[in-house]
Each structure stands twice: as C-alpha cells, then as structure tokens.
Prior knowledge:
This protein has about 325 residues and is of the alpha/beta class. It has a single domain (about 5-320), classed as Ureohydrolase domain (Arginase, Chain A), CATH 3.40.800.10. The protein has helices at about 5, 10-15, 55-65, 90, 105-120, 135-145, 170-180, 200-205, 220-235, 265-280, 300-320; strands at about 35-40, 70-75, 85-90, 95-100, 125-130, 155, 185-190, 210-215, 240-245, 285-290. The strands form two sheets. An eight-stranded parallel β-sheet has the order 4-1-5-10-9-6-7-8, sandwiched between helices. A two-stranded antiparallel ribbon has the order 2-3. Helix 7 links the parallel strand 6 and strand 7 (about 185-190). Helix 3 (about 55-65) packs across helix 11 and helix 6 runs parallel beside helix 7. Bound molecules: N-(iminomethyl)-L-glutamic acid. N-(iminomethyl)-L-glutamic acid binds near residues 48, 160, 164 and 290.
Amino acid sequence: xxxxxxxxxxxxxxxxxxxxxxxxxxxxxxxxxxxxxxxxxxxxxxxxxxxxxxxxxxxxxxxxxxxxxxxxxxxxxxxxxxxxxxxxxxxxxxxxxxxxxxxxxxxxxxxxxxxxxxxxxxxxxxxxxxxxxxxxxxxxxxxxxxxxxxxxxxxxxxxxxxxxxxxxxxxxxxxxxxxxxxxxxxxxxxxxxxxxxxxxxxxxxxxxxxxxxxxxxxxxxxxxxxxxxxxxxxxxxxxxxxxxxxxxxxxxxxxxxxxxxxxxxxxxxxxxxxxxxxxxxxxxxxxxxxxxxxxxxxxxxxxxxxxxxxxxxxxxxxxxxxx
Length: 323
Ligand SMILES: N=CN[C@@H](CCC(=O)O)C(=O)O
C-alpha cells in the first residue's frame, strides 16, 4: 500500500518539501563504518498461541513511518525547561534498515535472525527489531547479548510473564533464562491481572524476577519505574535488551494485539518508556512485539504506535549521543 493510498485526499501533505518524512532508510552499507541505529524486521507469527499475522507487521510499520516527521524536541531533565534541544532524527543519526530476517519461526531461521542481530549490534549503538509475535524476543535478545549473556539484563513492558513451556509467543522469557540469562536481572513492567496464572506468577517469584504490576504504574512516574528497572537489569554491567510487547497497552490503543486488554497502558506511556530506555547507553537492543497488522482494523492505530516506538527509540538514542 502506498502512502497516498492510506491518506486519501492529502497529496499536498505528502509532497511538502518543508515537512520531510521519516523512514525509508537505506540498507546497511558495505564496510565497517559505524551506524547509530539499525532496524530490522523479525516476522515471527506461526508459533503464536492466538492465530496471528504478525509477520505482516514489519512492512506495515515501515509504511506507517512515512506518515511522520523526524522533528523532535528532546526534553531536558524532568520538570525542567532548560536543556531542551530541537533535532531532526534523520540528520542527527545514521539510521539503516537491514530488511527482514527470513523464516524466523523455524529453528534455523531463528538462529539466522540471531546472527543478523549480532552482526548489526557489532556495528550499531542500538538495534531495533520489529516483530512479529513475541517469540522474536529470543533471537533479538540473544543477538544483542552475544558472548555476554552472563552479565546481561532484560526489561519487558508486557502484560504477560512469558514463562510458558514450549516454543511460542508466551515463552521467550523462560527460553532466555534457560539460555543463560540471570533471572535476577529481569524486570517485567506492566504485568496485568486476568492475563496470567498463579503457576506462572510462582515461576516468576521462584526465579527472582522483579515484577512491577500494572496497578503500580498508576501511582509511580514512568521515569521512576524505568530508573528502577535499569538499576536492577543493569546490575551486571552487561548489555541490556528491552522487549516492548505492545499488548501491555490498553485495548483501545492496541486493538491489533491479540492479547491486549482494557485497562492497559496508554500510548504515551509506552512511547515515554521507549524513549527513556533508549537514552541509556547500556540498552543495546529493543524489540517491538505482538502487533498483528491485519487485525488492526480500526485505523491502523496499533501499527502507528509501533512505528512511533521506533521513532521514540531513535529520539532516546539521539539524546544518549548528546544531540
Ligand atoms: N506475550 C504474550 N503472551 C501471551 C500470548 C497470548 C496469546 O497469543 O493469546 C500469553 O502468554 O498469554
């Protein structure tokens, strides 16, 4: 679908040279020149517990990115007006699009996706992997951790523990622990009632995972929550990976996620979390999971939120790099 098809009646807007659009980033250049931000698609969907066409989402997110400008006013310290800076992401950062991993639902495809993330991570300050169902978190995180899994940490924004048995979108956190990730450096933000079970809650407790329940987020600022998460996940001084499962959001803003429920985070809360996390230099990878573009029938609002999370990650990275 072209940009003009999804915005009928606004051809002038799409052609305004004074309002350049983001996205459309080039492929990874040959050689070893450094990259600031690398994005790729990891289109997992076949092992999803709920039937999902999440494999169609990376392409939809790329299309949605074309709606937005990369103009950002980066905030100063919380509550302070000083320190604000105005930047254009596409000018401040070297951003590349590495395309999509092939058949990441299969074991060999998952290993190849992990290798692709690892190669990007060796060159880029931050890798953003667009899913795909939540099983993409395994190759995305393992690729980012590389040989440093023993010191690594994981932060999830997710309504679910993802500690199920087997291989699905409900098991990536357990699989990462079994691969060697220390569960005491896992922080799960936004775990929701009526979306998990006593058994999986017990697993989280037994592992020593830090759980910040959805209801806690009503009385704490996102800045405070993210600070705590970074402190715990980063305690090994190793690389951090962030899983943004969009089903942590309220169903009204994330209808394209099979498992989003009423009462979740607002869109701005997920966006703020993405930006704050990307600002920290220990965060080397972020994935965006569980959006099924074909179920996003309202007005593409879930795909648009996923695209904005990519841009928030870029804005956080720009701040990290001093822009
Ligand atoms: N990350 C998502 N986990 C959910 C998936 C549910 C679904 O696909 O319906 C879970 O384990 O319950």
